[in-house]
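comment on this one:
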Amino acid sequence: MSKTVEISSPAQFTEVLQSSRLVVADFYADWCGPCKQVAPVFEQLSQSLSRPKLVTFVKVNTDQQKDVAQAYRVTSLPTFIIFHDGKVADKVQGADPVKLQAVVGKLMDKVENIGNSAGEASGSGSGGDTASWRGAGLPRGYIDITEQIEQQRCELLNFDPDTGGVRVLFDGAKPSAFTGAKVATKDWVESDTDEQLLLFMPFQSMLKLHTLQITSLPPSDDEDDDEEAPMRPRTIKLFTNKPHNLGFDEAEDLSATQEIQLSEKDWNADGTANVALRFVKFQNITSLVLFVVDGDGEGEKVRLDRLRLIGETGEKREMGKLEKIGDEPGE
């Protein structure tokens, strides 16, 4: 059953704003093609993140609720508005799932802080529903900085196009492997021609990375009748501050900032490996390349469900200046 609230009057919308600390509103119209395109993403976020009196997802039909749309100056569709304590906190215009999920990522941090201050349980790796699903707890003194990844500039090489793309790795929702929910697009990544994957992640600001959380939830043999089950990653290389992705031969030969060997004991009950990084080597990081070298088994594919970066944020990068330098290298 959907947790999304369909607004039927201005009074109801006001009541929702007053009764829920955070409200995510989807302003749409039935005739709007882009609205229909992004609707499944909004519904998935609603299913995974809604919490009574804390986080509420609502849909506002602008043809039926013109007063509400005019009150918040909605001039294009779809428009998503995030309210915090009844006030506009952020807005996303257009059917852009990346922007929507990035804004909701900020929402998750607010929800977590609210929950902690109220004494509620936050993500502890128990596998229960939380504002932002995380397969392991946070190290003391550090925060989830996954939202600092510039998803539109990420590049993932050798992934099976029949599985989800790079963006699903940073999805804040609980993996469907836990919920059993049917999804239009598989919300995990599998390698394609062999077991290797190469992921380039640029950041919005300089980061200090403390921990990498990797979730891998391959099915058991009896759940995978059609083909051999994919494996969890075993050997991983990390490279920092690269301007672009590496090639596979280059990644094989290049000395890594850190090389990681994972075994069965490293994966917790939620299928997550909590990988501590050599913190001194991960200061002032502007990008990260993750190279899955091989898998833990005899299969031909590796599966990744979620990635989380844990650490500290630093000085924000001036993206306009960086673009100008890139266009005019002589300056």
